[in-house]
Write a structure and sequence with these properties.
The protein has 300 residues and is mainly alpha-helical. The chain contains eleven helices and no strands. The longest helix has 31 residues. About 3% of the residues have low confidence.
Length: 300
């Protein structure tokens, strides 16, 4: 299906939509962990209960307001993050709205949310799979040029550009080190091994996180295997193409965040938090590395 001539896509759309989904998943996992640790407290009193779905609506409203008000890349990225957090707060209460007794703990809820995120992720991939037209590329260049010209008057964007320049210089210094490639490979190999061992421990019932009557879904075992395979491919590609390697590492990280961590969280909120934090840090680090490599390729 061709793109209508009067529609101009953002060249960074898939990245920001992906960021929104990652923030949404992380928000759901953090909410569930917080509620478990604090004994499921309720905000309100005297017959009132302030559902956290309302905070989700507020987050999505702020995101929409930012997108309608600013062109600056920093503000649009902030909107993606805030919108993802808001959507996470909103969809976390899905169980209440599909059961007649408003059951937040409705067991299939996590699986339903997982399916929803997989559909959204595939939609995001589909959006990014179509190359931009010549007219869209030209429009994106004009917008970027206009944002660069506005740096003197846009304080927020100026700060963003300064940070971006600092990160780029730091990245160039980092990747030039001889130890960088081996350390990066070793780090992701450790991540893969840790994830596989954790899954095996849950499957065999040798982990404190295992539930006596639980079982690990086949999809989680498959996800751990796929994630590990992506890491192996990334390690093999690292010396030939850093950009290609980082993309394989990113795919592995996304599989872990969007699939494996969701099911790990189902069996143990506490055990899943460490994995979530590790993968979230890996995601943001890889996003920086990929952006730097893309800019380097465009300038060469």
């Amino acid at each position: 299906m061709p793109i209508p001539q009067d529609v101009v896509r953002d060249e960074h759309a898939s990245d920001m939509l992906e960021m929104m989904l990652v923030f949404a998943v992380a928000t759901i996992l953090c909410i569930r962990a917080f509620l478990s640790l604090t004994g499921y407290p309720q905000l309100g009193g005297g017959g009132l209960h302030i559902a956290h779905m309302l905070w989700g609506g507020l987050g999505m409203l702020i995101s929409i307001a930012l997108l309608l008000s600013f062109w600056n890349p920093a503000m649009r990225q902030a909107a993606a993050a805030i919108g993802g957090i808001g959507f996470g707060f909103f969809i976390d209460e899905l169980g209440k709205f599909i059961t007649s007794d408003n059951d937040y703990f409705f067991q299939p809820t996590i699986a339903l949310i997982y399916i929803l995120f997989i559909i959204l992720f595939l939609a995001v991939r589909a959006i990014g799979s179509r190359p931009l037209t010549t007219a869209e590329i030209s429009a994106n260049k004009r917008i970027i040029a206009a944002m660069s010209a506005a740096d003197d008057t846009a304080r927020v964007h100026r700060i963003y550009a300064q940070i971006d320049e600092w990160v780029q210089k730091a990245y160039v210094r980092l990747v030039s080190k001889q130890w960088f490639a081996p350390v990066l490979s070793a780090t992701f190999i450790v991540v893969a091994v840790t994830e596989i061992v954790s899954t095996i421990a849950l499957i065999t019932g040798k982990s404190a996180a295992s539930k006596p009557d639980g079982h690990i879904p086949i999809v989680e075992q498959a996800a751990s295997t796929v994630s590990g395979l992506f890491i192996v491919l990334g390690v093999l590609r690292l010396r030939r193409s850093r950009l290609s390697s980082y993309r394989w590492f990113m795919r592995s990280t996304l599989v872990s965040i969007l699939v494996t961590q969701v099911f790990m969280f189902y069996y143990s909120e506490l055990a899943a938090i460490g994995g979530l934090l590790m993968h979230a840090l890996a995601y943001f680090a890889l996003r920086v590395l990929i952006n730097r490599e893309q800019k380097s390729a465009q300038s060469s």
